[in-house]
Amino acid sequence: MNFEVKGTVRRFFELLATGLLLGTQTILYAGAATGIMTIPLLPYVYPLLRGDFSGFERQVWAMFFLNTFIVGRIIMVIGVVVLFIAAVQWLWSHHKKLSLFETGVYSKLRHPQFTGIIIVTLGLTVMVLTNGGVSLWMMVGLWFLQVLGYIAIARYEEWRLTKKYSEYKEYKQTVPFLFPIKSPKKIPETLFTILIVTVICIILLSLPYQLIRVYSSMYFPTIWSP
């Protein structure tokens, strides 16, 4: 019984940490107090508690309909699809009472759920940078720190699974970590993953966001506005 309680508490804090990392992303800049990625979920929760739904409606509209966000939106949708597939397979495997999930998307990535979330937050970051009015280095740096958080959670989960299942060590040797690229034998897997994230950050710093905004507005007209 004590073991079950500990497991429930552990899963709760894992879920809380994952949610807080994801919750540090918002779309539109709202000032120093409730700005992008300052306090988790505050830009959404605080106005709702006051009964002000206008800001929330604007955030949702911008995320799904504003034409200038088309590039970030495509990236975000890809992440949502990966996350949805991973969640469905996880629930199905859990329903079948499987100890380890090694088939389907879990045969390509050891943590596809985190990969999906990372892609979602990447898309949200591109949206923010396309919107403009924020520090490029700050936004990319904050996304980098977010991904480090997901890497830490995934590593903790693997440490626990390795202690619980002897076959997990073999699974780790054959299936990539967070990205579908096998780590070279001479480079530690965690370091290799961070290097991949660093390359993505360099790409983020190099994208012509003003041109993306202009051409998105030109070729993808907004079909609805609040």
Explained architecture:
The chain is built from 9 helices and no strands. It has 226 residues and is mainly alpha-helical. The protein has 2 domains: 23-64, no CATH class; 67-226, no CATH class.
Strand-and-helix sequence, N→C? HHHHHHHHH
Structural class: mainly alpha
Mean pLDDT equals: 76
Radius of gyration equals: 19 Å
- Helix percent reads 55-70%
Beta content: under 5%
- The figure for the number of domains is 2
Residue runs with pLDDT of under 50 for 5 or more positions: 25-42
- CA-based shape: globular
Give me the number of helical elements. Answer: 9
Distance between the termini: 52 Å
| Count of DSSP strands | 0
Largest sheet: none
What secondary-structure arrangement, pairings included, does this model have?
Blueprint (H helix, E strand, L loop, with lengths): L1 H22 L18 H8 L4 H11 L5 H26 L16 H20 L4 H29 L3 H7 L14 H18 L2 H11 L7
Overview features:
226 residues; 67% helix; 2 domains; globular; mainly alpha
Compact summary:
The chain is an all-alpha fold and 226 residues long. The chain folds into two domains: 42 residues, no CATH class; 160 residues, no CATH class.
